[in-house]
Structures are given as C-alpha cells and as structure tokens.
Amino acid sequence: MKKLLQKRLKNEKGLTLVELLAVIVILGIIAAIAVPAIGGIIENTRVKAQFSDGQNVLAAANIYFVENPGAQPVSIAELVSQNYLDNAGSFGKDNDGKVTYTKGGNTLSATTVGDKTTVTFANATNEAISKADAKSGNGDLVKINKK
Predict the structure, then answer these.
(1) Residues 87, 47: Cα–Cα separation, whole Å
(2) Closest CA to 112 of 64, 147, 77, 144
(3) 113-141 tens-digit pLDDT
(4) Transmembrane stretches, by residue range (predicted)?
C-alpha cells in the first residue's frame, strides 16, 4: 500500500509558484485593459440614450404640431403635461427646453443631464441628432460636456 501511494505522489503534477504568479500577472494585464474599455462603452451608451430622449421629444412635438397647427414653440414640460410624452427622460421634469416648428424639420433647444455628461441641443433637428457622435457631438447643434 505504501509503495502504491509513493508511486501516485511521484506522478502528481501541479502548478509551481512561478507558474501561478505568471497566470495572476496575465489576468491583471487583461483586467487593466478591459476595465477602461468597458467604462467607455457604458458612457457612450448613456450619451446615446440622451440622444434618443431628444429624438423622442421631437417625435412628440411633431404630433403636438399636427394637432395644434400654428402653436409654437412648445416646451418639453408642456409636452409632458399634455401627455404627448410619458416623461421627459434625461431632460428632467421642469426642463424649459423648447421645440420650434419649421418646415425643414422641427428644432430642439434643450439640455439633458446624465451621470457624467451633459448634452446640449441648440436648434438641433432629428437629422442632426442622428448624425451626432457619442464622443464629440455634432458641432454647434449637439454639444457634449463631460463632467
């Protein structure tokens, strides 16, 4: 029995301390690369959600202008209070932003407040919001301010 145990112990192979440290170092390097990349993806997604809120406001304003011809501009708070929007999203409850009716496409002037960014829409059309980049915005029409 003793010989059998000794024979099995000789055949046992495991990781040495150096091999274990090498694995830990490699995992640390991978984590150091992955964490900032994931953080950037999350922040870009939040900014895109703010863009989406802007497009929702413009869509609600389109319906408002169809039902109320000649009434302009309309505030975001008004769209919420008259049930054209369920909520103002990242624009906040008491946002004084407004949508102005234009034949070439309604324009939005308002500011959204996110966790780490503030997006300002300055007479931005739906097309301008669609073309905006989550990192740099779209020139003077859509500005992104990082906190």
Answers:
(1) 18
(2) 144
(3) 888 888 999 989 888 888 888 888 877 88
(4) 20-42
Q: What's the residue count for the chain?
A: 147
Residue 98 in tokens: 């407004």
Question: What pairing do the DSSP bridges indicate for beta strands 74-75 and 98-100?
Answer: antiparallel
Concatenate the DSSP letters of all residues of 88-102 into one string: -GGG-TT---EEE--
pLDDT tens, position by position, 25-83: 999 999 999 888 888 888 888 889 999 999 999 999 999 999 988 887 899 988 988 99
pTM check: above 0.85: no
DSSP string, 17-82: HHHHHHHHHHHHHHHHHHHHHHHHHHHHHHHHHHHHHHHHHHHHHHHHHHHSTT---EEHHHHHHT
pLDDT at position 103 = 82
CB neighbours (10 Å) of residue 76?
28
What Å distances lie between residue 3 and 7, 12, 13, 14, CA to CA?
6, 14, 18, 21
Where exactly are the structural domains of the chain?
11-146
Rounded Cα gap, residues 111 and 107, in angstroms = 13
